[in-house]
Design brief:
109 residues, six-stranded mixed beta sheet, alpha/beta
Length: 109
């Protein structure tokens, strides 16, 4: 994906969420919670952790959700096993998409 794709998300609040000090290099990311069918833009410093991205997305899109540990984060189709690594160490580039999914499939009622 490219940064222009990430920056063209349609939401009522057009401002991205900022994580860390974004004074220098900024990564423009997209975080999507699959169960909500919605996504947010995140501008983050390269040294921000994957967990910070996950928490920001859950807080914004699903404020009354299950505990954060019941969700997994995927980048390029693979689960990020250690959420304490930085987004760049996880392999994120400018324009990357983090997909946040329920750890276990939930029945539809």
């Amino acid at each position: 994906m490219t940064a222009p794709f990430v920056t063209n998300l349609r939401r009522c609040n057009d401002e991205p969420i900022h994580i860390g000090k974004v004074d220098g290099q900024v990564l423009r990311l997209r975080a999507q919670v699959a169960s909500m069918w919605d996504a947010i833009r995140i501008d983050t410093a390269p040294d921000a952790t994957v967990r910070e991205v996950k928490l920001a997305a859950l807080e914004t899109l699903v404020p009354d959700s299950f505990p954060p540990d019941q969700y997994v984060v995927k980048l390029r189709g693979f689960e990020v096993l250690d959420e304490n690594v930085t987004v760049t160490d996880a392999g994120a580039l400018d324009g990357s998409i983090f997909l946040i999914l329920d750890r276990r499939r939930r029945p539809i009622r």
